[in-house]
Specification:
It contains eleven helices and eleven strands. It has 327 residues and is α/β, with parallel strands linked by helices. Helix 1 links the parallel strand 1 and strand 2.
Length: 327
């Protein structure tokens, strides 16, 4: 990508999308189209054009993708939306001549219930619920595209992360989350958001990346208990509290349903200014026990990835949260 190029970023106003746009903007030769369901007023500047776009609408998508050299698909949302977007993106890419390189962000969730260390040669299962199944189904659409590059990030944390940096911080500071004992001995495949953004840009620019699949995550994988302890240390909330099975059952069975209702209600009318405590969801406790580790050697050797030190990433994230950051 030595000449002036145009790159379309889908989901550009989300947590990961914003970082990818920022990373792309470091190269003055790249013209960026930052697309989301809603245009962000006043956000077009310099080499960045903003576009309101429904990424499931093939006609609108065709107009946006025509003339681009690369597309980065980091659309989030419901399983149905993830799947519909992937289907549309790769259908349009197949009709364009030449097709743009499409960097598609999948997820660790695509591996499903597999345990142990996995590299990109291990067939994913997508059998851990609707989200996991949608991520795998979206990958299958990507596999039909000769110009696709597939990225599988793990647990993406950093300033602006709704769950892994905002809600987890709130739970740790409230001493509602901490050492889960055996329930927190699963492997936490953390990856800093800036590293995901760097990988997406490298996937666009690296010739040998074409057609490849790449796991993204720290090569030194902590347990969830270790993650909670190290993040709490950075937040000034250490030592973490030992959360008993009884306490966790109380959270899941009594507090979580009530807090979820309050959380939904706070999105509307007079309760908009209310910030209720986050519920601990059953899927989180299940994830904390899952012992799967992603090997990331391929991303290092092909893309040239170098990973942010976990403590450095957590300290930066904690500083964002303590300064009033909220996702």
């Amino acid at each position: 990508m030595s000449e002036r190029v145009r790159v379309l970023v889908l989901g550009a106003h989300g947590f990961i999308g914003r970082r990818i746009v920022a990373e792309l903007s470091q190269d003055s030769r790249t013209a960026i189209i930052a697309a989301g369901r809603r245009a962000v007023p006043g956000s077009s500047s310099g080499s960045i054009e903003t576009l309101a776009l429904d990424a499931t609408d093939e006609r609108a998508l065709h107009a946006a993708m025509a003339g681009t050299t690369g597309v980065v698909n980091c659309v989030a949302g419901s399983p149905d939306n993830i799947l519909a977007c992937a289907k549309a993106v790769f259908a349009v890419a197949a009709r364009l001549k030449p097709p743009p390189r499409v960097v598609h962000l999948s997820s660790l969730a695509a591996y499903g219930s597999i345990t142990g260390m996995v590299d990109e040669t291990v067939p994913p299962r997508g059998d851990l619920g609707e989200y996991s199944a949608a991520k795998l189904a979206a990958e299958k659409f990507a596999s039909t595209c000769e110009s696709a590059v597939l990225l599988r990030p793990g647990i993406v944390y950093g300033a602006g992360s709704p769950w892994w940096s905002d809600r987890i911080a709130r739970l740790l500071c409230a001493r509602r989350l901490g050492d889960l004992g055996r329930g927190g001995d699963g492997l936490c495949n953390l990856v800093y958001v800036d590293d995901v953004a760097a990988a997406a840009v490298l996937a666009l620019r690296t010739p040998d990346a074409l057609g490849g699949t790449f796991n993204l995550g720290s090569p030194r994988i902590p347990t969830w208990n270790d993650y909670f302890s190290r993040y709490a240390q950075a937040l000034g909330a250490a030592p973490v509290r030992r959360i008993s099975d009884r306490r966790l059952a109380l959270e899941l069975n009594l507090l979580a349903p009530a807090l979820k209702v309050l959380e939904i209600a706070s999105r509307f009318g007079p309760l908009r200014q209310v910030h209720p405590p986050p519920p601990i969801r059953p899927w989180l406790t299940t994830l904390c026990q899952h012992r799967i580790g992603m090997a990331v050697t391929r991303a290092e050797t092909v893309l040239g990835m170098r990973w942010t030190d976990l403590d450095v990433g957590l300290e930066t994230t904690a500083a964002w949260y303590l300064a009033g950051g909220r996702a």
